[in-house]
Amino acid sequence: MRVNLTVNGRPQQADDVWEGESLLYVLRERLGLPGSKNACEQGECGSCTVRLDGVPVCSCLVAAGQAEGREVVTVEGLADLAGRRAEGGELAPVQQAFIDAGAVQCGFCTPGLLVAADEMLERNPNPSDEDIREALSGNLCRCTGYEKIMDAVRLAAARQQEAV
Ligand code: FES
Ligand code: FES
């Protein structure tokens, strides 16, 4: 089966997709986008989180065929979303904030957290700690104990507020 979709603003086509193949597999193995990570493949860890028509989803649970004609944004595309590039840099503000707050250790969870955090900040520019916890509740991190991740999202939100 052939699947046509838009990924990070570019039309893409994947051929010979087998029935049951996941969107995560298509992104990583067919389209050369390894940023979304493959850990549990069961929807438990959030390391494969991407946006599908704007909504964060576990791409390991989305059949590639379900993405036909739809818009996908992966961690590789975050910096290119309109108005999101950090001042003078190559990274989206949320990516820069994760670095500045020391929220990245092994980094395996980081792409999924970035996609989820970025989506929340777009919807909710002034989140409470509860809002942040809720938005990131599907993303597991084995390294950081989450406090630095909370700091990073608070920092990204504060910088976003300053920029308004
Ligand atoms: S790999 Fe998709 S949720 Fe863990
Ligand atoms: S930084 Fe290692 S799993 Fe989160």
TrEMBL record:
<dbReference type="InterPro" id="IPR012675">
    <property type="entry name" value="Beta-grasp_dom_sf"/>
</dbReference>
<dbReference type="InterPro" id="IPR051452">
    <property type="entry name" value="Diverse_Oxidoreductases"/>
</dbReference>
<dbReference type="InterPro" id="IPR006058">
    <property type="entry name" value="2Fe2S_fd_BS"/>
</dbReference>
<protein>
    <submittedName>
        <fullName>(2Fe-2S)-binding protein</fullName>
    </submittedName>
</protein>
<keyword id="KW-0479">Metal-binding</keyword>
<keyword id="KW-0001">2Fe-2S</keyword>
<keyword id="KW-0560">Oxidoreductase</keyword>
<dbReference type="Pfam" id="PF00111">
    <property type="entry name" value="Fer2"/>
</dbReference>
<dbReference type="InterPro" id="IPR002888">
    <property type="entry name" value="2Fe-2S-bd"/>
</dbReference>
<dbReference type="Pfam" id="PF01799">
    <property type="entry name" value="Fer2_2"/>
</dbReference>
<keyword id="KW-0411">Iron-sulfur</keyword>
<dbReference type="InterPro" id="IPR001041">
    <property type="entry name" value="2Fe-2S_ferredoxin-type"/>
</dbReference>
<dbReference type="InterPro" id="IPR036010">
    <property type="entry name" value="2Fe-2S_ferredoxin-like_sf"/>
</dbReference>
<dbReference type="InterPro" id="IPR036884">
    <property type="entry name" value="2Fe-2S-bd_dom_sf"/>
</dbReference>
<keyword id="KW-0408">Iron</keyword>
<feature type="domain" description="2Fe-2S ferredoxin-type">
    <location>
        <begin position="1"/>
        <end position="78"/>
    </location>
</feature>
